[in-house]
Amino acid sequence: MASLSTLLLRGPTLLRCCPRLFAARTYAAGGDFKYIITEKKGKNNNVGLVQLNRPKALNALFQPLIEEVNQALTVFQEDPSIGAIVLTGTEKAFAAGADIKEMSDKTFQSCYSGKFLKDWDSVTQLKKPIIAAVNGYALGGGCELAMMCDIIYAGENAQFGQPEILLGTIPGAGGTQRLTRVVGKSLAMEMILTGDRISAQEAKQAGLVSKIFPVEKLVEEAVRCAEKIASNSKLVTQMAKESVNAAFETTLAEGVRLEKKLFYCTFATDDRKEGMSAFVEKRKANFKDN
Ligand code: CO8
Predict the structure, then answer these.
(1) Domain that holds residue 37
(2) How far apart are CA 154 and CA 204, in angstroms?
(3) Of 82, 89, 230, 275, which has the fewest CB atoms closer than 10 Å, so is most exposed?
(4) Which residue in the list 60, 93, 98, 146 is annotated as catalytic?
């Protein structure tokens, strides 16, 4: 029998063929998804795909959507068959930012004392690697969400920007920090102070994205990369991710120390032994994530 998470992730298909089963199952899991679509992808079904699906508002990020994303990411994080995740939007927009209509009536008091932006950066807590596949607009909170991911692939039509200044505010989910660390002070300042957007090509040149693909090929290519990642040891992959992320949080000396410790940790795993034995025996490694 399919697991609960499998049923949850096959939601849209199951909903069409057996809505009662779906309703019953997803009720237990906390409700079905209205603003996202989730699917397992890849030849071995080892990639979790989360697609933001609020196209009429260009995937503007608001609390119900963020809650669904967090719920889906938790399911994929806990599913041992999933080795990597792809987060994408539609061809027109990855996400055009936080929902301005939702934000417009907020006050300092309600922001400060309330839950505004609480849990909006859960993506950064994921242990499994996550690839942002960005077509179209990645603006404001959309750009910030992409930058919370581990790898950004862009479609040829992608546009990145932090236009908050044009709304009389500033980035609030890491834009001033992550963008500056990635593209450097001058370009980050220019984007944040003018609100100007950059193209996929400019983003690649600046190191914000690693690869660009035709719009219709983007998700397929992101899934291909995710499959490649998922074929390695999931355990060791998480150690590699933790070590790379430390580069943004610590001094060089501390980062190198952590890397050394994690490197030694790999020697406590069966997968390290299997990987090296496979090389010596001239065969493909068969990692067990152990
Ligand atoms: N919020 C709410 N609705 C939006 C948003 C948004 N950010 N962006 C687009 N929409 C809606 C439009 O209102 C419109 O809806 P309707 O048809 O009901 O009027 C629909 O989406 C289509 O938009 P447009 O007609 O404007 O489409 P265009 O193709 O003409 O323009 C643009 C596309 C250029 C993307 C334009 O919509 C735009 O400038 N959007 C706003 C972009 C922006 O300023 N983003 C930053 C928002 S502030 C922010 O993100 C703060 C981050 C705080 C932290 C967030 C944590 C994750």
Answers:
(1) 5-230
(2) 8
(3) 275
(4) 98
